[in-house]
Amino acid sequence: MKFVRFQSHERARWGRLDGDTIYELDRAPYDGSKELGRTHALEAVQLLAPVEPSKVICAGRNYAEHASELGNQAPTEPMFFLKAPSSIIGPGDTIALPSWQHAVHWEAELAVVIGRRARNVPQERALDYVFGYTIANDVSDRDLQKADGSFGFGRAKSFDTFCPCGPVIETQGIDPMNVPITLTCNDEVRQSDSTALMLHPVPKLISFLSSVMTLMPGDLILTGTPKGVGAMKPGDLIEICIPGIGTLTNDVR
Q: Is 112 inside a domain boundary?
């Protein structure tokens, strides 16, 4: 099933998407929602980011060729950093580049939406804690990453608009261990790989993270990006496609 968050009559609402019809929910679907009996036409509403997480956790260097293209070694165990939830924007929103001239890269990623409280979860049960999957773009200021060094990536990745995600949460039919991810910039394919290339697959990431921190319903885990990252410029149109979830589209200014 597909779930969305949307703007209607100046209010943010939740819904279940079936075709072109949204069935409104009383709360977030990962919080035990119920349908309210009201429907909305998809074309009549504005889709928002389909999550409101308590935290956004990102796996770093989780594809060997991406680590290599930036001159880094692939980690032997999962490495992660936190990205501010206030950086989240939705489908159709604009990525705003900082006023200074820095290299700001796209990073297409499969994102995991946690469905229930998770702490010290074994790998073999990790997928039981997943509500669904969406698409994310881990927008990254490379100059600030280099400047901050051992202080981490938080500043470089947490500017407002630096975490586009959506358009939906898909709860069925997604194999997180083998799903293709494609990113185009102005209709030119720049990233195209499979999650099968992850160094640390989704069950391992969830298990590892839950041994460090409690994962809560709605928390968002960005699972890393494949090779092909590149710098955005004003006027670009970035589109990320994952079959079964859809296409996340954002312009750049």
A: yes
Q: CA nearest 188: which of 228, 223, 133, 136?
A: 228
One pLDDT digit (tens) per residue for the chain, 253 residues: 999 999 998 899 999 999 999 999 999 999 999 999 999 999 999 999 999 999 999 999 999 999 999 888 889 999 999 999 999 999 999 999 998 889 999 999 999 999 999 999 999 999 999 999 999 999 999 999 999 876 678 899 999 999 999 999 999 999 999 999 999 999 999 999 999 999 999 999 999 999 999 999 999 999 999 999 999 999 999 999 999 999 999 999 9
| Burial label, 80 (beta-carbon count in 10 A; 0-12, 13-18, 19+) | buried
Q: Is 88 exposed, middle or buried (0-12, 13-18, 19+ CB in 10 A)?
A: buried
Q: How many domains does the chain fold into?
A: 2
Kindly report the backbone phi and psi dihedral angles of residue 118, in degrees, each rounded to the nearest multiple of 5, phi listed first: -130, 125
Boundaries of domain holding 29: 2-46
Residue 51 located in a structural domain: no
